[in-house]
Write a structure and sequence with these properties.
By secondary structure, this protein is an all-alpha fold. The chain has 20 helices and no strands.
């Protein structure tokens, strides 16, 4: 039961992987001119999308096998081979579905940045629909792919029937992507890009203004996603006592404490989940500098009176500011929905919700620091930060059930964050995490200033 619900949270990491994989090799290749080179050869216009989707199938099948066999190999009493394989197959099927979704948006959007943003917004909307469906409408949950795959009831009933249905939906979405690709022109999209001004504003001419402009759409999209996810969970707080009372699973994981209300204990669980999700956009913001470098666009900026340190600082500042922004968006989303459904909304004040979310900032800053360190020290290995992010997800939601060694749990920065309101805030721990983030960032700056640009 634990793994069945955790699947929706684990799948977020799989969605990130598939969206980046597909967009990078479709719309991203068009932006960099690689698709034009390939199209000059005797290949069909669908060849690039074909190769990308085949790669996605291979990657997700491998992921399904490794996950299923890996979970079974742990020999946990309650995790049998059938359930473990279903867990892996369900992850692979869901990953393929969102690979198809990303392929569609790669045809609709003119830029890879837009395709990624649209894909994540689509995921947020589907997650929101599933959350509403689980509370009020079984039909709505079955229509939503995320709600459908959750009906596998892994390790409980092990239903396989949602998998082929989701794969059929994936085929349908993929067919749409192929149809759109076959009728559009190279480097064009069905959602036209808004024409810019003839002359840039004074703000846009500054390094910070340019960085903010490049990240603006992504930050806005993620703010909406984080606010919506917060609102989705906040909207069920009115019936939370009945909801938790009917669910053995939630009674176990929210650790009901008689000293505090069920609503507060539920918020404790929600904030930990959403804070991990909020790590995705802040890492994306930090790594944007590296993508600009790889695309060769940084040379135009650095050829002017702009130092590397100053330009890197712009992205670092935006990453740290966005972490605060997204944590506030979660708190505002929960509060906005909670005040309209709770009989006693004063129980969850906005100040309390902000405190419960902002306490996770040091953990997010460690993740940002890790990304900056890789940009400066190992620019070709920046993808490793996503591996570490996947580990934090695993340690937070699966590791405890799977008996992850204690020393591995200590490598997860989110594991040091106090669970409010049952835990008291240990400011020493938070300061240590902040210092670690500062050191990682500072070392990244030092190496970034010394190394060569690598396009």
């Amino acid at each position: 039961m634990y793994s069945n619900t955790m699947f929706l949270w684990v799948i977020m990491a799989v969605v990130v992987m598939n969206v980046f994989l597909v967009v990078r090799h479709t719309r991203g290749d068009e932006e960099k001119g690689r698709s034009e080179v390939l199209r000059s050869l005797p290949t069909g216009r669908l060849a690039n999308l074909n190769a990308t989707m085949i790669t996605a199938v291979v990657v997700n099948v491998a992921l399904a096998l490794v996950t299923g066999l890996g979970l079974a190999a742990m020999r946990v009493e309650s995790m049998d081979l059938a359930g473990s394989m279903l867990f892996g197959v369900a992850i692979g099927a869901a990953g393929l579905f969102f690979a198809a979704v990303a392929a569609v948006f790669a045809q609709l959007s003119v830029t890879s940045r837009g395709a990624i943003a649209y894909s994540f917004v689509a995921f947020g909307i589907l997650y929101f629909i599933r959350a509403i469906g689980d509370i009020n409408s079984e039909t709505l949950s079955l229509i939503c792919p995320l709600g459908l795959i959750q009906r596998t009831q892994i390790y409980v009933e092990n239903h396989w029937w949602p998998v082929p249905i989701l794969l059929l939906e994936t085929v349908g979405v993929t067919a749409i992507a192929y149809a759109l690709n076959s009728i559009r022109d190279m480097e064009q999209g069905f959602i036209p890009a808004k024409p810019g001004r003839k002359e840039a504003s004074v703000f846009l001419r500054s390094p910070f203004g340019l960085s903010l402009r490049l990240l603006r759409n992504s930050l806005i999209a993620w703010f909406i996603v984080m606010f919506s996810l917060g609102a989705a969970y906040g909207s069920i707080l009115g019936d939370i006592d009945r909801f938790v009372g009917q669910s053995d699973f939630y009674q176990k994981i929210i650790k009901i404490n008689d000293e505090f209300s069920i609503a507060k204990m539920f918020i404790t669980m929600v904030t930990s989940i959403l804070s991990l999700i909020g790590t995705i956009p802040v890492i994306i913001a930090a790594l944007k500098l590296r993508s600009e470098e790889k695309d060769g666009r940084m040379e135009h900026v650095l050829s002017r009176a702009v130092s590397r340190t100053k330009y890197l600082a712009c992205y670092v500042v935006l990453s740290f500011l966005s972490s605060v922004l997204f944590q506030c968006a979660i708190a505002l989303g929960i509060y906005t929905a909670a005040v309209s459904v709770m009989p006693n909304p004063s129980e969850l004040s906005l100040g309390y919700l902000l405190q419960a979310n902002l306490v996770y900032l040091p953990a997010l800053w460690v993740m940002i620091g890790g990304a900056i360190l890789l940009i400066g020290l190992l620019p070709k290995a920046t993808v490793a930060i996503w591996g570490y992010f996947g580990f934090t997800f695993f340690a937070a939601f699966i590791g405890m059930a799977a008996g992850l060694p204690e020393w591995l749990n200590k490598l997860n920065p989110f594991g040091y964050i106090p669970q409010l309101p049952t835990d008291t805030i240990n400011f020493v721990t938070l300061v240590i995490l902040t210092v670690i983030a500062a050191i990682l960032t500072a070392v990244g700056f030092i190496f970034y200033r010394k190394r060569d640009m690598m396009a």
